[in-house]
Amino acid sequence: MGKLYSNRTILGNIALVVFVAFLVTLTFGSLNPAFAQTATNSGTVSIGGANKDYTVQADRSGATVTFSVTISPLTRPQFDAVTIKFFDGAGTAVGQVYGATYAQAYQQISAGVYGFVYSWVYTFAATPNDVQIRIYEGPELTERKSITLDVRTPPPSGGGAPAPAPAPTPTVPNATVVSSTAVTSQTTTTPDGKRVQTFTVQATATTDIQKAKTEGKTTVEIQIAPAATTTSTVVNIPTNVLQSAQGLNVAITTPNAMLELPPALVAALAAAGQGLSLTVESGNASTVANEVANTPGARGAVVLGTPTVIKTAIKGNTNVTLPLKGITIPADPEAKAAFLASLAVFAIHSDGEKKIISGTIVYDKDNNPIGIKFQVDKFSTFAVVKVDKLVKVITLKIGDTKATVGDQPYTLDAEPFVKAKVNRTLVPVRFIAEALDAKVEWKANTRQVVVIDGAEIVLTINSSKVLVNGLDKTLDCPAEIISSRTFVPLRFVSETLGAKVAYDAKTKEITITR
Prior knowledge:
This protein is of the alpha+beta class and 514 residues long. It has 3 domains: 9-150, Sandwich (Immunoglobulin-like), CATH 2.60.40; 175-386; 393-513, Copper amine oxidase-like, N-terminal domain (Copper Amine Oxidase, Chain A, domain 1), CATH 3.30.457.10. Helix content is 17%, strand content 45%. The chain contains 9 helices and 37 strands. The strands form 6 sheets. Strands 4-7-8-10-11-13-16-17-23-19-20 form an 11-stranded mixed beta sheet. A hairpin with a 4-residue loop joins strand 29 (439-443) and strand 30.
């Protein structure tokens, strides 16, 4: 759209034009009123060097969107200087193509002071889920405000109930994903040009949360998908939604990081009447590299990929997974294993603490490494780094499910025990695999468990025969299944994977270093 007309001849026809706009809007809205989508945003915009109040709204019915914009108070020169353009969610200008009607009107507030209402109807050929309204000032079209409104895709024009969207795939095991319709978003632009997209979880999410509980799931996952142009992603989970999730893990998945709040933290927030608000954005690799170079114990580490900044006021143990996107992983199996073993996380905490955190490599269903997982109790800037030699220390106790992996607490799914007949310690295979960043495969037809981390170990349940890189070896303590858990000999597996094992008979504590 060009500059808003200031010619006084408009005033004579304004009532008629606004009335026609109203009728057109009403007509489009009535095509499918049950599924109309409305989104609104309000705030201030700088016009003529002063903040003016604005409200923008987009009403969608079928493939038709009716926009309206109000700004006030404006003097006549300020009014004349305002230009408004409309874009689809991908940032493609659509405001140069007019729909059935449009209208602009002065609203006289007092002598010489005006506001205006701008209405416009447009029918999209495609059906994006969000639209943008941008406000400019002056002949040079200086952008003063950009607002994205989520209007979502309505049902087919043939009427009837909308086709159900495919169920989102969980990225967390044993999780139920909150429906995308229960998460609304809006985008604003800060004075320094940052595009902030805020996602708010609605009360309707409690339906998905209850479903997760009914189905015996352990996690409810909220998947956040910001636009490619988003600088900063804000996620808000109200208190009532967190309270309904008590007893479950709550996972928030964004392109830059995934956070998993354990049930204890969810319960603590709910009991305190607190909701959750967090901000996730990209950090500066050069800045983090300078911090690494000046941090004892981290010198020599190389920053890989783009750092992630997580800001939130919550405190409590939280699992964080950083994706390995943008990081080249060697294809050769041995080089790949060595590379993954060298990865860690460098943290610059908000309280000034800086340190290296060892983590666990996360794999997808096809056994491709996709992330590094670690635990923190405060939030900061995090970066994936490669270290020349990172010594990982693992501790556990006989008869106790509590352990540590690096500086992170770990809970085993079954207690380690000593096989008295041969005086050997057996541990759940999942623990030793995750602790040493190895992969585990179960072959049900042959009742074999395969542990892979550079070396490949093939253990057969209740058999003393074991294969190590294809070579036959003999065990004095075979792997076995107890209460549906597979146990493997700790020392044999650990030492075969290059670790050292020490046992303190007095405290019954085992220490593994690699």
